[in-house]
């Protein structure tokens, strides 16, 4: 009987050491971490010093253009300290920047919001290969993933791109976006009338 009690006590000591804290996963704009919502409450729930975290994050991202969304992982330790991991900006951000568009397509497969070349895909893949989750993946696999992501954003991947033709395409696209915004506004107004 005493052996089983001793065994249970030793198991309890091991069980106490297991860490069940979850990682905080969020996108924070570079150099713009602030104590206000939504970041402040997320850090407060995990007992992290909000002011110190914001200062640390803003110092680490000082060399990056302000406002770029950065996927951030925060591992909280038992003594209220934390390990901060900052990844490269999301693939969709790079793809939209390369295509010169601010928003993706509303109907991704049916409409095209922009075009990029395979060279753009390769350059983005080289940048994204520095991320911890993609470190050990081959560049070809990352390129395939980026092409799929571009398709879901409504960005077409082409071999060659003529600057003049693409400029005309973007001008036509601006008119389409304006029409879509008007249509969305009309839907919102119609919904407001129904609920009132």
UniProtKB/TrEMBL annotation:
Gene Ontology terms: cellular component: mitochondrial large ribosomal subunit
The UniProt record lists the keyword Transit peptide: yes
UniProt main location, coarse: mitochondrion
Large ribosomal subunit protein uL11 N-terminal domain boundaries: 25-82
GO biological process: translation
Record flagged with keyword Ligase: no
Localization (cell): Mitochondrion
UniProt domain Large ribosomal subunit protein uL11 C-terminal: residue ranges: 88-157
UniProt keywords, alphabetically: Mitochondrion, Ribonucleoprotein, Ribosomal protein, Transit peptide
Listed GO MF terms: large ribosomal subunit rRNA binding; structural constituent of ribosome
Assembly with partners or alone: Component of the mitochondrial ribosome large subunit (39S) which comprises a 16S rRNA and about 50 distinct proteins.
Protein family according to the UniProt entry: Belongs to the universal ribosomal protein uL11 family.
Protein name (database record): Large ribosomal subunit protein uL11m
Source organism phylogeny: Eukaryota, Metazoa, Ecdysozoa, Arthropoda, Hexapoda
């Amino acid at each position: 009987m005493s052996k089983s009690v001793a065994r249970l006590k030793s198991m309890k000591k091991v069980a106490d050491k297991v860490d069940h804290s979850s990682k905080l996963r969020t996108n924070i704009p570079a150099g713009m971490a602030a104590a206000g919502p939504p970041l402040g409450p997320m850090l407060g729930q995990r007992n992290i010093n909000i002011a110190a975290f914001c200062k640390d994050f803003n110092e680490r991202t000082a060399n990056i253009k302000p406002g770029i969304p950065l996927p951030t992982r925060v591992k909280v330790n038992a003594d209220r300290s934390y390990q901060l991991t900052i990844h490269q900006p999301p693939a969709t951000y790079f793809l939209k920047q390369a295509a010169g568009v601010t928003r993706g397509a509303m109907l991704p497969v049916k409409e095209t919001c922009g075009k990029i070349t395979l060279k753009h895909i390769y350059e983005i893949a080289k940048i994204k290969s520095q991320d911890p989750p993609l470190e050990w993946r081959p560049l070809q696999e990352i390129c395939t993933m980026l092409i799929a992501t571009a398709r879901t954003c409504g960005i077409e991947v082409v071999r060659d791109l003529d600057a003049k033709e693409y400029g005309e395409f973007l001008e036509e696209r601006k008119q389409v976006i304006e029409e879509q915004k008007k249509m969305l506004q009309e839907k919102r107004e119609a919904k407001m009338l129904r609920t009132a």
